[in-house]
Design a protein that fits this description.
The protein is α+β, with helices and mostly antiparallel strands. Helices cover 30% and strands 25% of the residues. The protein is built from four helices and five strands. The protein has a three-stranded antiparallel beta sheet, with helices on one face. Strands 1-2 form a two-stranded antiparallel sheet. The longest helix is centred in the middle third of the chain and has 18 residues, at 73-90.
Amino acid sequence: MVNPKNESSYQHLGTGLSFPLQTNVQGGLKLSAEAQKVKESIWLILRTDLGERVYRPDFGCRLSELAFAPLNNDTLLKIRLYVLEALQTWEPRIEVDEVRADPDTAGRVNIVVNYHLKSCPDPYSFVYPFYLVSKVENNEL
């Protein structure tokens, strides 16, 4: 019987420096691998605005376009579409099963990404907090 978690089956997921950079117990830079590396990559894609990277201006997600949008159904739909578009473009190691935009407290939307690795059917979930700040709320502060 083949062990599904053997090194060769997850080798394509990569190993590298953790994001954000951290130190390990010995004082060196912490590394992350496999599913953790994919999770960190999703975080990096969603946090990067289009045009932010000099040599790769099309890398990232369009979420910053919605920073001052009203919290309504149209904005929630755009959030889901922008996240799905970015992950399908920039994260080839996953299949996105679902993207939800769940409104939370005033101006906060929890973006829930349910996905699985292409090499493995195990489900994973990622929650990304996104904050909408409307002009009306700014005047009240």
